[in-house]
Design goal:
Elements (H helix, E strand, L loop, with lengths): L1 H13 L2 H7 L3 H9 L8 H25 L6 H16 L5 E3 H18 L11 H19 L7 H6 L1 H27 L3 H9 L5 H7 L10 H31 L2 H15 L14 H13 L5 E5 L4 E2 L5 E2 L4 E5 H5 L40 H18 E5 L7 E3 L3 E3 L4 E6 L2
Antiparallel strand pairs: 1-9, 2-5, 3-4, 6-9, 7-8
Helix pairs in contact: 1-2, 3-7, 4-16, 5-6, 5-16, 6-12, 7-9, 9-12, 12-14, 12-16, 13-16
Family: Belongs to the cytochrome P450 family.
InterPro entries: Cyt_P450, Cyt_P450_CS, Cyt_P450_E_grp-I, Cyt_P450_sf, Cytochrome_P450_Monoox
Pfam families: p450
Length: 424
């Protein structure tokens, strides 16, 4: 009832029916309960993990970001090259490609290598497709559960067909996470591997957790480890895949901006044989286009938060401290009172020196609970866009216009289909 009231109240200010739709995304809370507690619980264990992460994250994500553009043959850059090579083999002049699934495998490959010491290629190993499918199923099942009043009861839901499917998907996702942790623990039993670890400039995320110690001197339990790895595994690939896919679609439907980005990248990188850390600050127009695409298609359309203090709205109505509210980033980004002509793709909104409210653009949320991997994600987006535009021209498929649907991440009901034309 509170959520419906909030929907009506905010719709007056947001001016978009999408707010009411995205209210349903409060399923984020349910999803966290299903797949992992991660950074959201106020327990002593999680507080210790958050402290570890907060102390290490600036260095850790700086390190991860650097790994994204290590030359071919290593880590994130190689993951993108595997994807592009695959695209070259399967696309023709007149064929279209559903890009979301391919990009999801690429971003999972990247996060596995950068954060979890994974060796090999997720994109070339068919077993990882089952994990991708499990995450997709959980997105749909949680959304479906929220709309069914009878399924709010845990007992009823567990014996329902959807509940059984959700339990099966959760088990598959947890099994995948357990295997990642088990594999890394096994590697760390080897003295040679430990010596390599000591020589590393920075520990990756999983190593930080495995070497972490609680206040009582004990390491994190398997349950706590799984919760953190579940959260990073999901947030580290699915949201980024959504962002990259919708950016490609936005550029495909705005060819003049796509071409201007390509010229900027060509003047900076030439044939794209290498890309450096410093290059990312030298593509301002491409960055503007990425941000504008994230405004129109925010990877996470909404989040739920507990009010830490009362909130009073312009009309005098207020909400008390302690209740949960839904924040619609999609509604915010499409609000004509905040953005002029919000449905128009206009990168100049993000031109250097342009003025806007500090909280009018929140693709990575904001405040103390914002995305701790936003710098890594933004750099990955830049690398993916830059190197893809050097190899392909992106063209829309007018017969398959994507239909955005709010899930935990923003997806398309009918996929995102593009023509990919290889550049000479």
């Amino acid at each position: 009832v509170i959520l419906l009231v909030l929907g009506k109240m905010f719709c007056k200010y947001v001016g978009s029916i999408w707010f009411i739709m995205s209210v349903l995304v409060f399923l984020c809370l349910v999803f966290v309960w299903m797949i992992g507690e991660g950074r959201v619980l106020k327990s002593p264990t999680i507080n210790v993990v958050v402290s570890i992460c907060d102390l290490s994250c600036s260095n850790f994500f700086l390190y991860m970001s650097a790994l994204v553009f290590v030359p071919s043959g290593r880590l994130g850059f190689s993951s993108l090259l595997v994807l592009q090579d695959k695209w070259e083999q399967i696309v023709g002049q007149d064929s279209t490609l559903e890009i979301f699934q391919h990009i999801t495998l690429m971003t999972l490959d990247t996060i596995m290598k950068c954060a979890f010491s994974h060796e090999g290629s997720v994109q070339l190993d068919r077993k990882y497709k089952s994990y991708i499918q499990a995450v997709e199923d959980l997105n749909d099942l949680v959304f479906s559960r929220v709309r069914n009043i009878f399924h709010q009861n845990d007992i009823i839901y567990r014996v329902s067909s959807n509940g059984c499917r959700a339990n099966s998907a959760c088990k598959l996702a947890h099994d995948h996470t357990d295997q990642v942790i088990k594999s890394r623990r096994s590697q760390l039993q080897d003295e040679e591997e430990l010596e390599k670890l000591k020589k590393k400039r920075r520990l990756d995320f999983l190593d930080i957790l495995l070497f972490a110690r609680m206040e009582n001197g004990k390491g994190l339990s398997d349950k706590d480890l799984r919760a953190e790895v579940d959260t990073f595994m999901f947030e580290g690939h699915d949201t980024t895949a959504s962002g990259i896919s919708w950016i490609f679609y936005a550029l495909a439907t705005n060819p003049e901006h796509q071409q201007r980005c390509r010229k900027e990248i060509q003047s900076l990188l030439g044939d794209g044989a290498s890309i450096t850390w410093n290059d990312l600050d030298k593509m301002p127009y491409t960055t503007m286009c990425i941000k504008e695409a994230l405004r129109i298609y925010p990877p996470v359309p909404g989040v739920s938060r507990e009010l830490s203090s009362p909130v009073t709205f312009p009309d005098g109505r207020s909400l008390p401290k302690g209740i949960h509210v839904m924040l619609s980033f999609y509604g915010l980004h499409h609000n004509p009172n905040v953005w002029q002509n919000p449905e128009v793709f206009d990168p100049s909104r993000f031109a250097p020196g342009s003025s806007r409210h500090s909280h009018s653009f929140l693709p990575f949320s904001g405040g103390a609970r914002n995305c701790i991997g936003k710098q890594f994600a933004m750099n990955e987006l830049k690398v993916a866009v830059a190197l893809t535009l050097l190899r392909f021209e992106l063209l829309p498929d007018p017969t398959r216009v994507p239909i955005p649907i709010p899930r935990i991440v923003l997806k398309s009901k009918n996929g995102i289909h593009l023509h990919l034309k290889k550049l000479q």
